[in-house]
Design brief:
Elements lengths: L1 E4 L17 H7 L1 H10 L22 H12 L2 E6 L2 E6 L2 H10 L30 H15 L1 H6 L1 H20 L6 H18 L9 H25 L12 H25 L5 H10 L9 H31 L2 H15 L14 H13 L5 E5 L4 E3 L2 E3 L4 E5 H4 L22 H10 L16 H18 E4 L10 E4 L2 E4 L1
Parallel strand pairs: 3-7
Antiparallel strand pairs: 1-8, 2-3, 4-7, 5-6, 9-10
The structure holds protoporphyrin IX containing FE (HEM).
The site of protoporphyrin IX containing FE has 24 residues, from helix 12 and helix 17.
Length: 495
């Protein structure tokens, strides 16, 4: 993207193991089994091919789009199989409601398969942990020290400082008439903020540390996509599954491990209590803690938070800007709103956000249209009934968030980018509607939903807000913004 100053601004401103007794296997085994199926009322299964099952339906387009196409033809709750491994695909708002409200506890584990002795995808991750003591302990630590309202207020200064540095970097490029890769710059912003919150300093640009970390984040997000699908491929491809990527995983994992070990030693030497790593070290050393965490837990959580906080928000900033730049009427309305709230002499601040409903609506519509995490993975602990169908225990559940947020039964003109839909009704009406159906799920939902919705919104709204407020944008070369989607990690990407 090319950019220049806005002339009127005067600021410097895992897997599923299926035993022979699984009802799913019975379904495929014999006509006798089909009777069993009907008795149990399992979700419908589209026609499949011998051996590979439904794999062929997934190969041509992005998985979320392929799944959406299958669901719109066969129904919102389907059982599919890839080779011998079954999973249930949920694709409508009402089914999402059933899963995340009625059966929230039952589906609050993910069932990831793990890789031993690896930092990434190891058995001690927070994101993959069962909903047990370790998970609950860490979540409490997170809310109190990083993600809760008070913790967010304490760290506001860090984010404001980083928005100013972001502004200064763009201003420098504008002065030199250089073009800007929005995704890359957004990643620097989110990466710096997460580094400061987690380890008390941003990674150094001088010695290449920051670039190395950003590269590792991008590589890991790519690996998450591969491991997500290898989790679904399960047993038959076990050897080809996670082990196929083992070398790659161990490489990235080793790099993170080395960095984290160095950071832990730095923190132990300075004995302070200012960032998330300090908090976790105190918990590690505290004899009477409710749960005895290990040094490995600390490293893992830091890496997971780093990944979760950096990548999704940066991609959303990139998507939001792509939509805004290609739609001048949205850009103009945003600017008017921003100028009336922040004026022309200072940068937009976090505290301005509640008074910027249109900016909030643009960010929400970006989340609906281009969800950073289009598919989420859960596992049913016990048998349950969803949308009138029987779901056996230990079934992998894939929720197609992308399809839910384009479900034509609950969204008007779902394939149109229309921020106004988020300001048309009052917040009490929206709340009432949300209670009845779960149709807006960019952060997932229920116990295993994203614990950091607030921080996610702050990142994206302030980042986008500043870019719109302070700069005019022009597309390099092409007259239109390329909105083609690719899959990088589990995230939609813009190329
Ligand atoms: C706009 C940015 C973000 C988006 C779109 C996003 C989205 C998501 C989604 C969809 C999930 C899975 C939810 C589910 O399975 O129901 C998730 C989980 C998670 N997110 Fe976020 N997230 C964002 C920002 C963040 C930030 C800033 C942090 C932390 C600093 C964070 C930490 C986490 C963690 C720890 C989990 C795992 C929760 C669990 O397993 O219980 N996320 N996020």
């Amino acid at each position: 993207m090319g950019l220049c100053f806005r002339t009127h601004l005067n600021t410097q401103r895992k897997g599923l193991s299926v035993g022979c007794t699984s009802p799913w296997e019975l379904v495929w085994a014999s006509p006798w089994a089909i009777k069993k199926k009907n008795k149990k009322n399992l979700p419908q299964s589209p026609p499949s091919l011998p051996i590979i099952g439904h794999l062929h339906l997934l190969l041509s387009v992005l998985p979320q789009k392929a799944f959406q196409k299958i669901s719109s033809r066969y129904g919102p709750l389907l059982h599919l199989r890839i080779f011998k491994v079954p999973f249930v695909l949920a694709s409508s708002a009402s089914v999402a409601y059933d899963l995340f409200r009625t059966h929230d506890v039952n589906v609050s584990s993910r069932g990831f398969r793990t890789l031993e002795n690896s930092l990434l995808f190891g058995h001690e991750t927070f994101t993959g942990a069962d909903f047990g003591d370790y998970y609950k302990f860490m979540k409490k630590v997170l809310v109190m020290n990083l993600l809760g309202t008070q913790a967010l207020e304490r760290s506001r200064g860090i984010r404001a400082e980083e928005i100013e540095r972001f502004y200064a970097r763009l201003m420098d490029k504008a002065r030199k008439k250089e073009s800007v890769e929005i995704g890359k710059e957004a990643m620097v912003l989110t990466n710096n903020i997460m580094s400061k919150l987690l380890i008390g300093r941003s990674c150094s640009e001088e010695n290449g540390e920051a670039e190395k970390v950003r590269e590792s984040v991008t590589k890991t997000m790519g690996l998450i996509k591969k491991v997500f699908f290898s989790n679904m491929l399960g047993k038959p491809l076990k050897k080809l599954g996670i082990s196929l990527f083992e070398k790659e995983i161990r490489g990235v994992s080793g790099g993170f491990d080395e960095l984290l070990e160095r950071l832990l030693r730095e923190h132990e030497e300075k004995h302070q209590d200012t960032d998330m790593m300090d908090v976790l070290l105190s918990a590690y050393k505290y004899e009477n803690a409710d749960y005895k965490i290990t040094r490995n837990h600390i490293k893992l959580l830091i890496v997971e938070l780093f990944l979760a906080g950096t990548d999704s928000a940066a991609r959303l900033i990139q998507w939001a800007m792509a939509e805004i730049i290609s739609k001048p009427n949205i850009l103009e309305r945003l600017r008017q709103e921003m100028d009336s709230v922040a004026g022309k002499t200072r940068l937009i601040q976090e505290t301005d956000l509640p008074r910027l409903p249109y900016l909030q609506a643009v960010v929400k519509e970006t989340q609906r249209f281009h969800p950073a995490v289009p598919l989420t993975l859960r596992m049913s602990e016990e048998d349950c009934n969803v949308g009138g169908f029987h779901i056996p225990e230990k079934t992998t559940l894939v929720v197609n968030v992308y399809a839910v947020m384009r479900d034509p039964n609950v969204w008007q003109n779902p394939d149109e980018f229309k921020p106004e839909r988020f300001i048309a009704s009052s917040s009490s009406e929206q709340e009432e509607e949300r209670e009845k159906i779960l149709k807006f799920l960019p952060f997932g939902s229920g116990r295993r939903g994203c614990p950091e919705e607030n921080l996610g919104y702050i990142f994206v709204e302030t980042g986008v807000g500043m870019m719109v407020q302070c700069f005019d944008w022009r597309i390099n070369g092409d007259k239109i913004v390329n909105m083609e989607e690719t899959l990088a990690g589990l995230s939609s990407n813009r190329v």
